[in-house]
Amino acid sequence: MKTDDKKEKPAIPMLASEAPKPNAAMETQSTNGGGGTKGKKRNRKICICVTLLILLLIFIVLLVLGLTLFKPKRPITTIDSVAVDRLQASVDVLNLKVVLNLTLSVDLSLKNPNRVGFSFGNSSALLNYGGKLIGEAPLPASRVGPENTLPMNITLTLMADRLLTDTQIISDVMSGSIPINTFVKVAGKVSVLKIFKIKVQSSSSCDIVISVANRNVTSQHCKYSTKL
Protein backbone atom coordinates (compact mmCIF):
# COMPACT_ATOMS: atom_id res chain seq x y z
CA MET A 1 0.00 0.00 0.00
CA LYS A 2 1.43 3.24 -1.18
CA THR A 3 1.60 6.13 1.17
CA ASP A 4 0.61 9.58 -0.26
CA ASP A 5 3.78 11.66 -0.22
CA LYS A 6 1.76 14.80 -0.60
CA LYS A 7 1.18 16.06 2.83
CA GLU A 8 -0.57 19.25 3.77
CA LYS A 9 2.05 21.87 4.45
CA PRO A 10 1.77 23.59 7.79
CA ALA A 11 0.76 27.29 7.75
CA ILE A 12 3.72 29.58 7.83
CA PRO A 13 3.34 32.18 10.57
CA MET A 14 3.11 35.78 9.33
CA LEU A 15 5.95 37.98 10.18
CA ALA A 16 5.31 40.88 12.49
CA SER A 17 6.50 43.31 9.84
CA GLU A 18 3.95 41.98 7.37
CA ALA A 19 1.02 42.17 9.74
CA PRO A 20 -1.58 44.99 9.14
CA LYS A 21 -1.10 48.08 11.21
CA PRO A 22 -4.55 49.43 12.04
CA ASN A 23 -3.16 51.72 14.76
CA ALA A 24 -0.85 53.45 12.30
CA ALA A 25 -3.73 54.11 9.93
CA MET A 26 -5.77 55.53 12.76
CA GLU A 27 -2.86 57.74 13.78
CA THR A 28 -2.56 59.02 10.21
CA GLN A 29 -6.24 59.88 10.11
CA SER A 30 -5.95 61.59 13.47
CA THR A 31 -2.97 63.61 12.26
CA ASN A 32 -4.83 64.67 9.13
CA GLY A 33 -7.85 65.73 11.19
CA GLY A 34 -5.70 67.87 13.50
CA GLY A 35 -4.11 69.61 10.54
CA GLY A 36 -7.55 70.53 9.14
CA THR A 37 -8.63 72.08 12.46
CA LYS A 38 -5.48 74.15 12.68
CA GLY A 39 -5.98 75.34 9.10
CA LYS A 40 -9.53 76.47 9.87
CA LYS A 41 -8.36 78.40 12.92
CA ARG A 42 -5.62 80.06 10.88
CA ASN A 43 -8.08 81.06 8.15
CA ARG A 44 -10.46 82.47 10.74
CA LYS A 45 -7.69 84.60 12.24
CA ILE A 46 -6.73 85.86 8.78
CA CYS A 47 -10.36 86.83 8.06
CA ILE A 48 -10.64 88.68 11.37
CA CYS A 49 -7.39 90.56 10.73
CA VAL A 50 -8.46 91.54 7.20
CA THR A 51 -11.87 92.73 8.46
CA LEU A 52 -10.29 94.84 11.20
CA LEU A 53 -7.84 96.30 8.69
CA ILE A 54 -10.68 97.25 6.32
CA LEU A 55 -12.64 98.86 9.17
CA LEU A 56 -9.55 100.79 10.22
CA LEU A 57 -8.98 102.03 6.66
CA ILE A 58 -12.64 103.12 6.40
CA PHE A 59 -12.35 104.99 9.70
CA ILE A 60 -9.16 106.73 8.56
CA VAL A 61 -10.77 107.76 5.26
CA LEU A 62 -13.83 109.15 7.04
CA LEU A 63 -11.62 110.98 9.52
CA VAL A 64 -9.56 112.55 6.72
CA LEU A 65 -12.73 113.63 4.89
CA GLY A 66 -14.15 115.03 8.11
CA LEU A 67 -11.03 117.12 8.72
CA THR A 68 -10.58 118.33 5.13
CA LEU A 69 -13.47 118.31 2.70
CA PHE A 70 -16.16 118.27 5.40
CA LYS A 71 -14.22 120.28 7.98
CA PRO A 72 -16.80 122.17 10.07
CA LYS A 73 -16.95 125.92 9.54
CA ARG A 74 -18.55 128.56 11.71
CA PRO A 75 -22.15 129.55 10.93
CA ILE A 76 -22.65 133.31 11.04
CA THR A 77 -25.68 135.08 12.51
CA THR A 78 -26.10 138.56 11.04
CA ILE A 79 -28.56 141.29 12.00
CA ASP A 80 -29.29 142.81 8.59
CA SER A 81 -31.61 145.62 9.63
CA VAL A 82 -33.53 147.04 12.57
CA ALA A 83 -36.62 149.18 11.99
CA VAL A 84 -38.89 151.01 14.42
CA ASP A 85 -42.46 149.79 14.03
CA ARG A 86 -43.88 151.82 16.88
CA LEU A 87 -42.48 154.40 19.27
CA GLN A 88 -44.39 156.41 21.84
CA ALA A 89 -42.43 158.31 24.47
CA SER A 90 -43.53 160.88 27.03
CA VAL A 91 -42.01 162.16 30.25
CA ASP A 92 -43.87 162.79 33.50
CA VAL A 93 -41.48 165.31 35.05
CA LEU A 94 -43.44 165.73 38.29
CA ASN A 95 -43.44 162.02 39.05
CA LEU A 96 -40.12 161.37 37.31
CA LYS A 97 -41.58 158.68 35.10
CA VAL A 98 -41.37 157.83 31.43
CA VAL A 99 -44.12 156.27 29.38
CA LEU A 100 -42.36 154.39 26.62
CA ASN A 101 -43.81 151.99 24.07
CA LEU A 102 -41.36 150.58 21.60
CA THR A 103 -41.62 147.82 18.99
CA LEU A 104 -38.74 146.87 16.71
CA SER A 105 -38.73 144.73 13.58
CA VAL A 106 -35.45 142.89 13.21
CA ASP A 107 -34.33 141.15 10.04
CA LEU A 108 -31.54 138.68 10.62
CA SER A 109 -29.95 135.85 8.68
CA LEU A 110 -28.10 132.69 9.60
CA LYS A 111 -25.48 131.63 7.05
CA ASN A 112 -24.22 128.05 7.00
CA PRO A 113 -20.94 127.75 5.03
CA ASN A 114 -20.62 124.01 5.67
CA ARG A 115 -21.09 121.23 3.13
CA VAL A 116 -23.50 119.61 5.58
CA GLY A 117 -26.62 120.88 7.30
CA PHE A 118 -26.66 122.87 10.54
CA SER A 119 -29.46 122.27 13.06
CA PHE A 120 -30.11 124.53 16.02
CA GLY A 121 -32.48 124.44 18.96
CA ASN A 122 -34.96 126.94 20.36
CA SER A 123 -33.43 130.28 21.23
CA SER A 124 -34.35 133.91 21.89
CA ALA A 125 -33.58 137.39 20.64
CA LEU A 126 -33.01 139.84 23.47
CA LEU A 127 -33.57 143.59 23.77
CA ASN A 128 -31.39 145.32 26.38
CA TYR A 129 -31.09 148.80 27.81
CA GLY A 130 -28.18 149.71 30.07
CA GLY A 131 -27.36 146.02 30.58
CA LYS A 132 -30.94 145.27 31.63
CA LEU A 133 -33.28 142.94 29.75
CA ILE A 134 -36.32 144.90 28.53
CA GLY A 135 -37.66 142.71 25.74
CA GLU A 136 -37.50 139.18 24.37
CA ALA A 137 -38.69 137.27 21.30
CA PRO A 138 -38.52 133.50 20.67
CA LEU A 139 -36.50 131.92 17.87
CA PRO A 140 -37.92 128.48 16.99
CA ALA A 141 -35.62 125.55 16.27
CA SER A 142 -34.79 125.03 12.62
CA ARG A 143 -32.26 123.67 10.15
CA VAL A 144 -30.07 125.45 7.60
CA GLY A 145 -29.13 123.45 4.52
CA PRO A 146 -25.56 122.99 3.26
CA GLU A 147 -24.01 126.25 2.04
CA ASN A 148 -27.33 128.01 2.52
CA THR A 149 -28.67 131.08 4.33
CA LEU A 150 -31.81 131.14 6.45
CA PRO A 151 -33.54 134.56 6.64
CA MET A 152 -35.59 135.33 9.74
CA ASN A 153 -37.75 138.19 10.95
CA ILE A 154 -38.53 138.82 14.60
CA THR A 155 -40.48 141.43 16.50
CA LEU A 156 -39.04 142.82 19.72
CA THR A 157 -41.45 144.64 22.01
CA LEU A 158 -40.34 146.70 24.97
CA MET A 159 -41.67 145.54 28.33
CA ALA A 160 -42.43 148.97 29.76
CA ASP A 161 -42.53 147.84 33.37
CA ARG A 162 -38.80 147.08 33.19
CA LEU A 163 -37.99 150.82 32.96
CA LEU A 164 -40.38 152.25 35.55
CA THR A 165 -37.63 152.73 38.12
CA ASP A 166 -34.84 153.60 35.69
CA THR A 167 -33.89 157.26 35.90
CA GLN A 168 -31.43 157.16 33.02
CA ILE A 169 -34.19 156.59 30.47
CA ILE A 170 -35.68 159.98 31.40
CA SER A 171 -32.45 161.73 30.38
CA ASP A 172 -32.21 159.73 27.15
CA VAL A 173 -35.80 160.43 26.10
CA MET A 174 -35.42 164.14 26.87
CA SER A 175 -32.15 164.25 24.90
CA GLY A 176 -33.96 162.71 21.92
CA SER A 177 -31.84 159.54 21.57
CA ILE A 178 -32.37 156.13 23.14
CA PRO A 179 -29.42 153.68 23.07
CA ILE A 180 -30.42 150.03 23.15
CA ASN A 181 -28.84 146.69 22.37
CA THR A 182 -30.14 143.64 20.51
CA PHE A 183 -28.57 140.24 21.15
CA VAL A 184 -29.17 136.96 19.33
CA LYS A 185 -27.50 133.63 20.13
CA VAL A 186 -28.03 130.37 18.26
CA ALA A 187 -26.61 127.04 19.43
CA GLY A 188 -26.70 123.85 17.41
CA LYS A 189 -24.77 120.98 15.86
CA VAL A 190 -23.02 120.27 12.58
CA SER A 191 -23.19 116.57 11.67
CA VAL A 192 -20.23 115.44 9.55
CA LEU A 193 -20.97 112.27 7.54
CA LYS A 194 -23.65 111.50 10.15
CA ILE A 195 -20.87 110.25 12.43
CA PHE A 196 -19.11 113.25 13.95
CA LYS A 197 -21.39 115.79 15.64
CA ILE A 198 -19.76 119.11 16.49
CA LYS A 199 -21.40 121.74 18.68
CA VAL A 200 -21.50 125.26 17.25
CA GLN A 201 -22.59 128.52 18.82
CA SER A 202 -23.15 131.74 16.86
CA SER A 203 -24.14 135.10 18.31
CA SER A 204 -24.57 138.70 17.24
CA SER A 205 -24.80 141.85 19.33
CA CYS A 206 -25.86 145.22 17.93
CA ASP A 207 -25.73 148.61 19.67
CA ILE A 208 -28.51 150.78 18.26
CA VAL A 209 -29.47 154.41 18.74
CA ILE A 210 -33.10 155.37 18.16
CA SER A 211 -34.22 158.93 17.40
CA VAL A 212 -37.28 159.87 19.45
CA ALA A 213 -38.27 162.72 17.11
CA ASN A 214 -37.84 160.84 13.82
CA ARG A 215 -38.81 157.43 15.22
CA ASN A 216 -36.08 155.59 13.36
CA VAL A 217 -32.67 154.01 13.86
CA THR A 218 -29.89 156.53 13.46
CA SER A 219 -26.93 154.33 14.35
CA GLN A 220 -26.18 150.61 14.32
CA HIS A 221 -22.92 148.90 15.27
CA CYS A 222 -22.77 145.10 15.41
CA LYS A 223 -20.31 142.49 16.64
CA TYR A 224 -20.39 138.83 15.66
CA SER A 225 -18.96 135.80 17.39
CA THR A 226 -18.87 132.08 16.60
CA LYS A 227 -17.53 129.20 18.68
CA LEU A 228 -16.91 125.59 17.73
From TrEMBL:
<feature type="compositionally biased region" description="Basic and acidic residues">
    <location>
        <begin position="1"/>
        <end position="10"/>
    </location>
</feature>
<feature type="region of interest" description="Disordered">
    <location>
        <begin position="1"/>
        <end position="41"/>
    </location>
</feature>
<protein>
    <recommendedName>
        <fullName>Late embryogenesis abundant protein LEA-2 subgroup domain-containing protein</fullName>
    </recommendedName>
</protein>
<feature type="transmembrane region" description="Helical">
    <location>
        <begin position="46"/>
        <end position="70"/>
    </location>
</feature>
<keyword id="KW-1133">Transmembrane helix</keyword>
<dbReference type="GO" id="GO:0016020">
    <property type="term" value="C:membrane"/>
</dbReference>
<keyword id="KW-0812">Transmembrane</keyword>
<keyword id="KW-0472">Membrane</keyword>
<dbReference type="Pfam" id="PF03168">
    <property type="entry name" value="LEA_2"/>
</dbReference>
<dbReference type="InterPro" id="IPR044839">
    <property type="entry name" value="NDR1-like"/>
</dbReference>
<dbReference type="InterPro" id="IPR004864">
    <property type="entry name" value="LEA_2"/>
</dbReference>
<dbReference type="GO" id="GO:0098542">
    <property type="term" value="P:defense response to other organism"/>
</dbReference>
<feature type="domain" description="Late embryogenesis abundant protein LEA-2 subgroup">
    <location>
        <begin position="108"/>
        <end position="205"/>
    </location>
</feature>
